[in-house]
Amino acid sequence: xxxxxxxxxxxxxxxxxxxxxxxxxxxxxxxxxxxxxxxxxxxxxxxxxxxxxxxxxxxxxxxxxxxxxxxxxxxxxxxxxxxxxxxxxxxxxxxxxxxxxxxxxxxxxxxxxxxxxxxxxxxxxxxxxxxxxxxxxxxxxxxxxxxxxxxxxxxxxxxxxxxxxxxxxxxxxxxxxxxxxxxxxxxxxxxxxxxxxxxxxxxxxxxxxxxxxxxxxxxxxxxxxxxxxxxxxxxxxxxxxxxxxxxxxxxxxxxxxxxxxxxxxxxxxxxxxxxxxxxxxxxxxxxxxxxxxxxxxxxxxxxxxxxxxxxxxxxx
Length: 316
Known about the structure:
With 316 residues, this protein is of the alpha+beta class. It folds into 3 domains: 3-90, Rossmann fold; 99-116 and 183-297, D-amino Acid Aminotransferase, Chain A, domain 1 (2-Layer Sandwich); 120-180, ATP-grasp fold, A domain (Dna Ligase, domain 1, 2-Layer Sandwich). The protein contains 11 helices and 12 strands. The protein has helices at 3-7, 22-38, 52-58, 77-85, 94-101, 103-112, 162-170, 211-215, 230-246, 281-290, 294-303; strands at 10-16, 42-48, 63-66, 120-124, 140-144, 154-156, 175-180, 185-192, 195-204, 220-223, 252-259, 265-271. Strands 10-9-8-11-12 form a 5-stranded antiparallel β-sheet. Strands 4-7-5-6 form a 4-stranded antiparallel β-sheet, covered by helices on one side. The chain has a 3-stranded parallel β-sheet with strand order 2-1-3, with helices on both faces. A hairpin with a 5-residue loop joins strand 11 (252-259) and strand 12. The protein starts with a helix and ends in a 13-residue tail after the last helix.
């Protein structure tokens, strides 16, 4: 869609939602809403609940800018609804969103594309797991299979800590992941228009880049661009693009890696709807690596809005 076309449409900024990341989503949505309105777009907030179909009809929403995080928003469910209603939307489509949100399936896709991932074991509710027997040893990382923002994630350093970590992860999913702990630098790649813009390194105050570090000022140092050998930096950008495309993502995303002292790049995940708050990484990468300010970034993402399922009834 062109800028002129979008100026004539009513844009709903979808925020809030039903996941554990509701408050973060509201912050992202508020920032995007302000940016769109400052550029003269007819943008309105849409607090997403189970009445979303009725709200979209009542508000006469023509285009959706999705600022949802986590379940029921980042996982393909809202994308499927918008496809059914014929409302163009920002970000990735149904399949890519669902694949990226499911860490188990995403890992299988990444491995098939030759990307390096940490050794892991899927644990289902009721099953026992012994990291030593699995060949991981301690520490290990325990995480839900379908949550974002490090919700439910624990680093387990001893057998005594394992039961509580498993219980925490099982609060969110029936299938969870136990991964070998990889000690490395946390590097994230920003993708815009399906191309890598650049990278940022996160140095958290806490043990890892957890929920608090992501959304509390002063809890993590951001280094953009990261200090890396040129060849390693280029490889990370290329692998970020590969991961984005492997899942079939559209438009923009953020791809997270751990980089070891030996230069091994372990792919963690692809975030199809990365945060758009004042502390968020994608806007910082866009500004510092390419000179794209927040309002310009939001507008470029909006212009990419489209229906992703082509066929009868599909719009622009």
